[in-house]
Write a structure and sequence with these properties.
Blueprint lengths: L2 H9 L42 H10 L8 H15 L3 H4 L17 H4 L16 H18 L10 H17 L2 H14 L5 H17 L4 H16 L5 H20 L8 H9 L3 E6 L5 E6 L5 H11 L8 E9 L12 E4 L6 H8 L2 H5 L2 E9 L12 H16 L7 H16 L7 H11 L2 H4 L4 H14 L5 H14 L6 E9 L8 E7 L2 E6 L4 E7 L3 E6 L3 E8 L2 E8 L3 H29 L2 H20 L6 H123 L2 H159 L3 E6 L4 H5 L6 E5 L2 E4 L8 E4 L2 E3 L5 H6 L3 H7 L3 E8 L5 H5 L8 H15 L4 E13 L2 E4 L4 H7 L17 E4 L5 E4 L4 E3 L2 H13 L3 E2 L7 E2 L2 E12 L5 E10 L6 H4 L4 H24 L11 H5 L8 E9 L6 H15 L9 E2 L1 H17 L4 H8 L11 H15 L5 H6 L5 H20 L9 H12 L1
Parallel strand pairs: 1-5, 13-17, 13-28, 18-27, 18-28
Antiparallel strand pairs: 1-2, 3-4, 3-5, 6-7, 6-12, 7-8, 8-9, 10-11, 11-12, 14-15, 15-16, 19-20, 19-23, 19-26, 21-22, 24-25, 26-27, 27-29
Helix pairs in contact: 6-7, 6-8, 7-8, 7-9, 8-9, 9-11, 10-11, 16-21, 17-18, 17-20, 17-21, 23-25, 24-25, 37-41, 39-42, 41-42
Length: 1374
């Protein structure tokens, strides 16, 4: 027994109540100084030494040492090492807390020591983690101690607290994968060498729960598996710990296969798992029946399917799986019932995760009901051979469900037959006796789309006649016929997927469509109403693949390869279904070929293959002309295959001759081997004969030996007999000697001499006889010795001879066996080579037969090709004529479309209607984070709609164009750039954007560097047109950039020097320092709004103009609000004045191109504006309110237009109700949180769309302009009008009325000039220069008369131009 075990046995308490706390009293010295039992060695730990932060753990443990006391882990290590090395008792080793009396300092802890049980908190994480994760790891270990009841001084926690602690640990592991391995290592630590049975049992239970919820990483899977498996095989573990280890092992295998849980296990799941109880859930079938399925934390979808198949006694369940059926139930969102959406569930997903997601409040809040559904994944080729009743019933139910859902469009005849079959399968015969029930069944079993094609009575008669014809059939027959009809459809038994079109090379597919995949190929359907469009056979699909968001097919259409791409999240399922059907067809063909090869000889198989090729050729001839290209490619492939086959045939013939030579050589070698084997057999017979002779001689020797042994035995007996006789003779002699002595005494006494001599003779005879007996005994003994030596010699010779014979026999037998084995191996190799050569020869013969069959097929195909080429020429001529006709019709159609658009644009321009474009921006990230949803939709490219409060139908707004979030800046500019040309042609063009704050106005007008907006694109287009017309006209461009900030008009192009001087110290209204120029809003005689005093910057290039705009934008007022990070706090107007001179006619055009970025309206409650931002918001809303009043008055065609209510309306007076070509962009935010503001903006824009302007072209004759300049010059020289007074006289104030024509503008100008500039008449001006007034007046009068005469002359073309009339009217007024 180890030292630690003996020590623990000695110090273990005797009372049962303290059995769990014995480890705290292990040494009897101090609390917490314990010695854990011997732990199992982890073999895989050596490869993970670098993953453990042993040094950091040692340093942290050393920092936690107080008053010379080591932590429990180091005490344990020091105690165990000291006891193992010195043999001292633990008590003596632990007398000194610091270990000084123990005989040395404790060594640092290793990774193996870190994974030893401890009831003290760890100072840091066991693995190398980031600091924030290390702190969480320490808290996790405290939770494990609290759960197991190992924390020193802590009380036993309740079950609810224990489950809460376990759930927190699972939350850390599932949320942070970095802590998952740390959690496993901590559980290994607390189950490895844990002395307390109750604590060890709780730790293993927690280990089981963690293993069931999440697997370890790949780096630690081997280590964890080794530890759990070793604990399962350990004989020292208790039964309860072994059961927990076995459950942990099973859970670890399942979680490693299926991955971690997606949702945190609930309290109910944890309680059920720890108590060994399974939960239940309901799984529905397509016929609305259901079954209860038991599950736990680790039950996957595949296991649930197998369990459910066992409940319903379904054996062939490989093609069935679970789906999530989503059914919309909110009547407000879906007024009409929508079909269920079935989402395929992964086989490795946990049932507990799916049930938790189905019970989530989000699913209920979205207005959908979800449930588990059991049905087939797809209909396979092998399903037709399955005869299991339950399988057929479920297949029928699913096929019927798909048909009634409209997945299989059929004609009316098929629909009537299928309705009759379904009625018979559902109710049997006799239902036609109840007309109401029969009609209800027809309406149920006929799809709505087909049912509306003819009256109900016709359906009743048609289905009734078919139903009566089925009276003799059973319900099973009706189901079988129903499924047979579906299988005969091209798209029968298909699996359907909803996709969106991304790339369609042929241009025939709608944006949204449904793909159906079955054993015949891929089928395309229009979704609503479902309509069959096109099919692609499997042999036409060359390649396919998928990603997480799309799927593509490379397939042949009309003989040409095209790539189709569709957007879907089920791309993997689509590819899996397609690959499955391809594999089934290939296996079926392989089985047929194999069966034909086994059943028929080679020639018959070749004939069958040729017959099949002829049938294919016949099918090709019956095809349409679109198949010709495919047939030509097939012929080319066959030609290439024939050439390859001929080459292969030549190579095969050469190989065959070589094989024959090799075969002959092998046959000769085989004959030699046979002769050699015959000789070896003869020698083997001779050896066997010699062996038999040796055995015979050995038998004879054995017989001789037996005879010798018998003779020896007889001699021994004889010698024994002679010895007995000699002994008798000696005894008799002794008796005679005694008698002789007695007689001698008697003779002495009687002195009888004669008697003595007789006795003496008798004695001599007895002695002679005794000597003879002795000699006979000696001779017998000598003979016996001789016989014994002879027997020993014979035995020795027999043994040596027998040994030699045995050795020779064994050596000969071993040599013979080796030779026979070598010959057998060689013979096997030769026979195998001969068989292989024979198989190759047979294969070559088959290939030759196939090549001959292919050659015959090629000849037939060549003849077919000639026929097809002849037909192709005929069809090519027809197609060429049709193509020419189509090109002509297409050209005429395009010309008509262009002409219609031009006429429409000309009509709209003539009417002067303001064009209004609507642009909907995309949703922003923070809006999606706040769970805001889109509320604005675009039914078509001219309409915007949205639901409004409790209204049942959406509100719709029509505009000239609608741009969705998918449209780019380039798309927006394409419909706008024609206005740039109008500005160059002399029109007043205005583009402005309106909408709430944050709706994308500034982005539309200006954009950014990556996506420039209308202004930079318009500038580029303007200078591009100027460069294009460089040989026809000469242009000059001037730009103004103004900002309306809090009702104050600011010049953004004012030079910085002037701005600094005007705003410097001491600058004031009455001081002599320079001040900012005063900006006045006026209107020129043509009705164009002009800002007097604004910086008028001349530009000559695109870059110069863009630089000026960027400088002005840098000075614009912007701020950040709760609704917009960069909110514009002012209105911005950029005006480009373009003056062009036609080099041929010398006509002068003056155009104006304005880009107006209005500040967005905002609600203070939403934007959170305070302080200065609040003032800005109030000023913006005030200006936009005044603009709304102007629009309302213009829309109502009121005579009074309140332009003068605000500076913004004064600036835009020529754009709204004036003489400009105006384009308005209404920018809308798409979310429901901004629906009120979006609705106001759309109503606002709808009113603007009703306003009509009188767009006029500003073009004047060069002679008239020259005369006007001369009149102005002589006026100035005569002192009648100064330059300042002239400018003031030409301009007028903005009036509260429409100004649509130059005449009205001139009238308004004169009237307003009198009011605006009093005292600017002739008399006041003349009075300023009395000395030269007379001469100058006369000169001016002469010039005026000349100008009047020139202006009264007819203009070019015989008509009076508007410019000349304006000049005359101005002269008369003057």
């Amino acid at each position: 027994m180890p030292v630690e075990a003996s020590m623990m046995a000695a110090d273990r308490p005797e009372t049962p109540s303290a059995a769990d706390d014995w480890s705290l009293k292990a040494t009897g010295s101090e609390p917490g100084f314990l010695t854990p039992p011997t732990a199992r060695r982890l073999q895989s730990l050596s490869g993970h030494e670098e993953s453990f932060q042993v040094d950091s753990f040692n340093r942290a443990a050393h920092r936690n040492t107080t008053a010379g006391k080591l932590t429990q882990l180091f005490k344990t290590k020091m105690l165990s090492r000291t006891s193992m090395s010195s043999g001292a008792s633990p008590a003596s080793s632990s007398k000194s807390p610091g270990g000084s009396s123990g005989g040395g300092a404790a060594a640092p802890a290793s990774a193996d020591d870190l994974l030893q049980w401890s009831n003290e908190p760890v100072p840091t994480s066991l693995l190398r983690l980031a600091p924030e994760h290390a702190a969480r790891a320490v808290k996790m270990f405290v939770g494990i101690l609290r759960y197991c009841g190992d924390a020193p001084g802590s009380e036993q926690i309740s079950q609810a607290q224990a489950i809460e602690t376990a759930q927190k640990l699972l939350h850390q592991g599932l949320k942070r994968p970095e802590l998952r391995d740390e959690l496993y290592m901590q559980l290994v630590k607390q189950t490895r060498g844990n002395p307390s049975p109750s604590s060890r049992s709780k730790a293993w239970g927690l280990f089981n729960l963690v293993a069931a919820s999440m697997p370890p990483s790949k780096d630690f899977t081997g280590l964890i598996s080794e530890y759990v498996h070793s604990a399962l095989q350990d004989m020292e573990e208790g039964e309860e710990a072994k059961e927990a280890a076995a459950a942990t092992w099973a859970a670890l295998k399942r979680s490693t296969k299926c991955g971690p849980r997606r949702t945190l296990p609930s309290v109910e799941e944890i309680v059920a798992h720890l108590s060994g109880v399974k939960l239940t859930t309901i799984v529905f079938f397509l016929d609305e029946t259901f079954e209860e399925v038991a599950y736990d934390i680790t039950t996957s979808v595949a296991e649930a399917v197998e369990q459910l198949a066992g409940l319903i006694r379904l054996q062939n369940f490989q093609t069935f799986t679970l789906y999530e059926a989503v059914r919309p139930v909110n009547p407000k969102l879906n007024p009409e019932p929508l079909p269920d959406e079935h989402l395929l569930l992964d086989e490795h997903r946990y049932v507990a995760d799916i049930v938790a997601e189905l019970r989530h409040p989000r699913v209920v809040r979205e207005g959908c009901q979800s449930r588990l559904l059991f049905k087939k994944r797809m209909f396979r080729e092998t399903d037709e051979s399955v005869s299991e009743p339950q399988f057929i019933n479920l297949s029928y139910v699913q096929a019927q469900h798909d048909y009634l859902a409209g997945n299989y469009p059929v004609v009316r005849e098929d629909a009537a037959q299928m309705a009759a079959l379904q009625l018979h399968a559902e109710h049997g015969p006799g239902l036609d006796l109840d007309p109401e029930a029969f009609m209800a069944g027809i309406e149920r079993f006929v799809t709505r789309q087909v049912l509306m094609t003819r009256p109900r009575e016709e359906w009743r008669a048609d289905v009734g006649s078919r139903y009566k014809a089925l009276a003799q059939h059973t319900k099973e027959d009706a189901r079988t016929q129903f499924m047979r009809i579906l299988r005969t459809l091209p798209y029968g038994n298909a699996t359907f997927f909803a996709v969106r079109r991304i790339e369609d090379p042929i241009g025939l597919l709608p944006p949204r469509l449904i793909l159906g995949i079955n054993k015949r190929g891929v089928h395309f359907f229009r979704p609503v109403p479902k309509e069959y469009l096109h099919s692609a056979e499997l042999r036409d699909i060359m390649q396919f693949g998928s990603s997480s968001q799309a799927v593509f097919f490379k397939m042949r259409v009309a003989g040409v390869l095209h790539i189709f791409q569709f957007e879907t999240r089920q791309g993997e399922d689509i590819c899996m279904a397609l690959q499955t059907h391809i594999n089934d067809i290939m296996m079926k063909r392989y089985s047929k070929v194999k069966a034909a090869t086994e059943a028929h000889p080679t020639g018959d198989a070749a004939q069958q293959q040729a017959a099949g090729s002829q049938s294919v050729c016949g099918g090709v001839m019956g095809g349409n002309a679109a198949y010709n290209n495919k047939m030509e490619e097939h012929l080319k492939e066959q030609q290439a295959q024939l050439e390859q086959a001929q080459q292969a045939l030549a190579a095969a013939q050469q190989a065959e001759s070589q094989i024959r030579c090799d075969n002959d050589a092998l046959q000769g070698e085989l004959a030699d081997l046979r002769e050699l084997m015959a000789g070896e057999a003869a020698s083997r017979v001779a050896l066997q004969d010699s062996l038999d002779e040796s055995e015979r001689q050995l038998g004879e020797l054995r017989n001789e030996l037996d005879m010798t042994k018998s003779a020896l035995t007889a001699a021994t007996a004889l010698a024994s007999e002679h010895s007995g006789r000699a002994e008798v003779e000696h005894a008799r002699l002794a008796e005679l000697e005694g008698l002789l002595e007695a007689k001698h005494k008697e003779l002495e006494e009687a002195q009888l001499g004669g008697l003595l001599e007789a006795k003496h003779k008798e004695l001599e005879e007895a002695q002679a006889r005794c000597a003879a007996a002795s000699r006979a005994a000696e001779a017998a003994a000598a003979e016996r010795d001789l016989l014994e030596r002879k027997v020993a010699r014979l035995e020795k010779g027999k043994e040596s001879e027998l040994k030699e014979l045995k050795e020779s026999y064994e050596s000969a037998a071993l040599e013979m066996r080796s030779q026979l084995k070598a010959r057998g191996e060689r013979l096997g190799e030769l026979m195998e080579a001969a068989a292989h050569n024979a198989a190759q020869l047979e294969e070559m013969r088959h290939e030759v037969e196939e090549v001959r069959a292919e050659a015959a097929e090629l000849e037939e195909l060549r003849e077919l090709k000639k026929d097809i080429e002849r037909k192709e020429k005929q069809q090519a001529a027809i197609i060429e004529n049709q193509a020419k006709r189509l090109e002509e019709l297409d050209r005429l159609y395009r010309e008509e479309v262009v002409a219609r658009k031009r006429a429409h644009n000309a009509l709209q321009d003539a009417k002067g209607k303001i064009r209004v474009y609507c642009r909907v921006r995309p949703m922003l990230e923070f809006e999606a984070a706040k769970s805001q949803t889109p509320a604005v939709s675009m039914p078509n490219e001219l309409t915007v709609s949205h639901f409004w409060r409790d209204e049942k139908r959406p509100r719709e707004y029509d505009f000239d164009a609608v741009f969705s979030p998918q449209h780019t800046q380039e798309d927006v500019f394409e419909d706008t750039k024609h206005l740039v040309r109008s500005a160059l042609d002399g029109y007043n063009v205005c583009v402005f954007a309106y909408g709430q704050t944050g709706s994308g106005k500034t982005f539309t007008i200006y954009g950014n560097e990556a996506c420039p907006g209308l202004t930079p694109r318009g500038v580029r287009e303007m200078f591009a047109q100027i460069d294009k017309d460089a040989g026809k006209a000469s242009y000059s461009v001037r730009v103004q950039m103004l900002e309306l900030y809090q009702d104050t008009l600011m010049d953004l192009l004012l030079p910085d020097a002037v701005r600094r001087n005007a705003t410097g110290a001491g600058a004031g209204r009455h001081s002599n320092e320079p001040q900012l120029p005063k900006l006045d809003i006026k209107k020129d005689p043509k009705g164009l709004v002009t800002v007097v005093g604004a910086t008028d910057l001349s530009v000559t290039s695109e870059q110069q103009l863009l630089t000026a705009i960027e400088q002005g934008l840098a000075r614009r007022h912007t701020s950040s609000t709760a609704m917009n990070r960069e909110s514009s706090r002012s209105h911005l107007i950029i005006s480009c004045m373009i003056e062009g001179v036609n080099m041929q006619s010398q006509a002068v055009t003056r155009g104006k191109l304005s880009f107006v970025d209005l500040a967005g309206s905002e609600r203070v409650k939403k934007s959170g504006s305070t302080g200065e931002c609040l003032k800005e918001a109030q000023a913006i809303n005030k200006s936009l309110s005044a603009l709304g009043d102007v629009i309302s008055a213009l829309a109502a065609e009121q005579p009074h237009i309140p332009y003068r209510n605000h500076k913004l309306t004064m600036l835009m007076s020529d754009s709204l109700g004036g003489n400009a070509k105006t384009l308005m962009f209404v920018n809308v935010a798409p979310t429901d949180a901004n629906l009120d503001e979006s609705q106001n903006s759309l109503v606002y824009a709808t009113r603007v769309r009703t306003i009509k302007n009188n767009a006029l072209r500003d073009e004047a004759n060069k002679d008239v302009l020259r005369l006007r300049k001369q009149v102005d010059f002589w006026k100035e020289q005569a002192g009648l009008l100064s330059a300042e007074a002239k400018t003031a006289a030409d301009l007028s104030d903005i009036a509260d009325r429409r100004c649509d024509s130059p005449a009205a503008a001139s009238t308004g100008t004169a009237a307003d000039a009198d009011a605006a500039v009093p005292g600017s008449g002739v008399s006041s001006t003349a009075g300023s220069r009395p000395s030269t007034a007379a001469g100058r007046t006369m000169a001016a009068a002469a010039v005026l008369q000349a100008a009047a005469a020139a202006a009264a002359a007819p203009a070019i073309g015989g008509e009076e131009s508007p410019d000349s009339r304006s000049s005359c009217e101005g002269s008369e007024t003057l």
